[in-house]
Amino acid sequence: MKFAKPLPSYLLQRYQGWHATTYTENKAWYRRLADEGQRPRAMVISCCDSRVHVTSIFGADTGEFFIHRNIANLVPPYEPDGLQHGTSATVEYAVTALKVAHLIVLGHSNCGGVAGCMSMCSGHAPELDEKTSFVGRWMDILRPGYAAIEHVEGEQERLRALEKKAVCVSLENLMTFPFIEEAVNNGTLSLHGLWTDIGEGSLEYYEAKDDKFLPV
Amino acid sequence: MKFAKPLPSYLLQRYQGWHATTYTENKAWYRRLADEGQRPRAMVISCCDSRVHVTSIFGADTGEFFIHRNIANLVPPYEPDGLQHGTSATVEYAVTALKVAHLIVLGHSNCGGVAGCMSMCSGHAPELDEKTSFVGRWMDILRPGYAAIEHVEGEQERLRALEKKAVCVSLENLMTFPFIEEAVNNGTLSLHGLWTDIGEGSLEYYEAKDDKFLPV
Amino acid sequence: MKFAKPLPSYLLQRYQGWHATTYTENKAWYRRLADEGQRPRAMVISCCDSRVHVTSIFGADTGEFFIHRNIANLVPPYEPDGLQHGTSATVEYAVTALKVAHLIVLGHSNCGGVAGCMSMCSGHAPELDEKTSFVGRWMDILRPGYAAIEHVEGEQERLRALEKKAVCVSLENLMTFPFIEEAVNNGTLSLHGLWTDIGEGSLEYYEAKDDKFLPV
Amino acid sequence: MKFAKPLPSYLLQRYQGWHATTYTENKAWYRRLADEGQRPRAMVISCCDSRVHVTSIFGADTGEFFIHRNIANLVPPYEPDGLQHGTSATVEYAVTALKVAHLIVLGHSNCGGVAGCMSMCSGHAPELDEKTSFVGRWMDILRPGYAAIEHVEGEQERLRALEKKAVCVSLENLMTFPFIEEAVNNGTLSLHGLWTDIGEGSLEYYEAKDDKFLPV
């Protein structure tokens, strides 16, 4: 692999700073986490977006959250077809092996993936329709959600509706996994839907009773 | 979705703490990141493991890293078959839309996914061999790497070798994506392989010249 | 300009080292910064002193800080008189064109400019009082601050008090610029005062509540 | 000063990293720099631009460069009128008090200040012509240089010519300071003109013999 390069020096410096402070002050805890394994209370599924770090928003301690991040925080439906399903693997591991107590889906404003999906579904992004578009095929998971928000007036409003729909579609798909449905039904697991506005720093949660998102 | 629950109160409290401090002190920057979009310098592919947060290790500022996290930081080879490839979608978005300058694969010690893969490949985990095991099928990506480390003496040593192999397999698979190979060749993208030891807090990088991992 | 000389060779060598390493490893990022323009999150006003490099203390990534350095990190009050105000031009550009989120004034110990100001104000440096002294006239900005610390006992203590006063005077003068006051009031800009001790490597910040500098 | 805020936490963390590594490893040297004062070999006048850090390009050691940074690395002509001249104060201090051996003016590509000057001089930026524009009045220093490059064909080429002219104008203005002319003439000080291309990472120097910039 002649192409691989060493760590860029600005990151090397920062790593050394982390090692000399955070790590050194918490050495015993890191040692223990390594020896005894992780025991996270919650799994969070959020977006890759560089502006939304769940570890920051929820002040995550090391060892606390099992975090899967993908484009637009999507979960596909249960499909045990023997093919590679990276996201399904993460929830299977979190629920059956780590037995997390909470499974949180965190959506966000200004989501590039969701915006791409809206363009695609409304016929404005033929390149995403192509078989070879990984982003397009991934966003297909959200296609069923588009129908439900198509009528919303105002492009901004429609986009926000689709971002929140992405959270709901993921929650619904999560319930199609037998091991999740079972854990939810016997009370060992709870599912949560959240959406955060990057610019406002606000947070909304999905309220089942009203079937809508409310400010926390 | 009657099953969805509000945010657990311990997280609500922490979010409020974040909003009253970090967000409030940096409001203008969040507002701007929302309005002008993200411009991350690097993409990091790391594990979901709750003990390895790249944002902490590299003191990531909001807006700096585009982060994909999956089981065992794996990237499958390029397969434009029209099916859902969540991981491939993340690298496509990072490289072609965001045009990140660095793509970093970060592996780690005590990786549950890699340990499962070793059990599976050595015939000790028949449940992972089943068609319905999402984790097993996902870890298939690492199978070709197992052959190369099978001979390593000592279980701990073999495990570490396979953890590092996971980084190399991902780097090799990344280069099978035409848009990545092109960006690497014309110098607009560089690939980096890293491995961190949770207990020691140490960091190693893949050195192409020697074809092995060296301490930073 | 017959007088101009080529780059001294010790610097040439270092530039070549930088180009072969840092630049080459980060080529794509530099290319992009050139093409897309800078988007610094913060402006820092610090001293020219060769012992205080803000880029080092805060591990600044390229593109992150807009930096103005002058004698004693001073900012004069708002004076739109049509004359040349180099420092006022830097803050105008940072706040109105670049729209930085933070404006940080960083003072430091052992400041030659501040020591000169103290000598001048206490009548021990007549040469600085002369009309032709650029340093003297520049340090006039800090004269109003001298009255407030004149009573402090002990020369070292008085000097430190004046160094910190230089930070406060600059912060107060910054607020006399209409575009800064407006940005602060509508929450898009925050001002910060810091003072670092060169020998101790310590850092203090101005705490508004107590109207004094506290260790970070 | 109710408006002043504490240090943003992302910078606090980085400072702590610097203190635990760079500072701690070099404590004795910092202690000595504090006790004995600075003795920089060179002064560098460069731009505030966040993409051009002279400390990085020339691998500056602590204590080595006395650095003045302003918009477009400009030096006004000698004007001992008793008014505030921040830039003149920096060169006076560097040459008469610190007795630096080199005085380097470093210009750069993609300079926002120079671009503004070109717009202003060609009549396309009336807002910069206003008496109240600090940036406009500051860029007046470069006005005499505009005439010399006005004829250059191609906007990009003209811009680059003006960026390099900014270096030359500053060098010429430096020589109008009696203490600089004297130091240059008796061989204790040398002046140097440089220009760097951000995207290419290249460096050119002003060659007196040919009266033009050549690659180093």
Automatic annotation (TrEMBL), chains A, B, C, D:
Cofactor annotation comment: Binds 1 zinc ion per subunit.
- Entry GO MF terms: carbonate dehydratase activity; zinc ion binding
UniProt-listed Pfam families: Pro_CA
Q: What reaction does this enzyme carry out catalytically?
A: hydrogencarbonate + H(+) = CO2 + H2O
Q: Name one GO biological process term.
A: carbon utilization
Q: Which CDD domains match?
A: beta_CA_cladeB
EC code(s) of this entry: 4.2.1.1
Matches recorded under InterPro entries: Beta_CA_cladeB (IPR045066), Carbonic_anhydrase (IPR001765), Carbonic_anhydrase_CS (IPR015892), Carbonic_anhydrase_sf (IPR036874)
Q: Gene3D superfamilies in the record, alphabetically?
A: Carbonic anhydrase (3.40.1050.10)
Query: Per UniProt, where does Zn(2+) bind?
Result: C47, D49, H108, C111
Keywords tagged on the record: Lyase, Metal-binding, Zinc
Please indicate which superkingdom the organism of origin belongs to. Answer: Bacteria
Claim: Zinc is one of the keywords in the record: yes
Q: Which cofactor does it need?
A: Zn(2+)
The text of the family note is: Belongs to the beta-class carbonic anhydrase family.
Query: What is its biological role?
Result: Reversible hydration of carbon dioxide.
| Designated name of the protein | Carbonic anhydrase
Which organism does this sequence originate in?
Answer: Donghicola eburneus
Q: What lineage does the source organism belong to? A: Bacteria, Pseudomonadati, Pseudomonadota, Alphaproteobacteria, Rhodobacterales
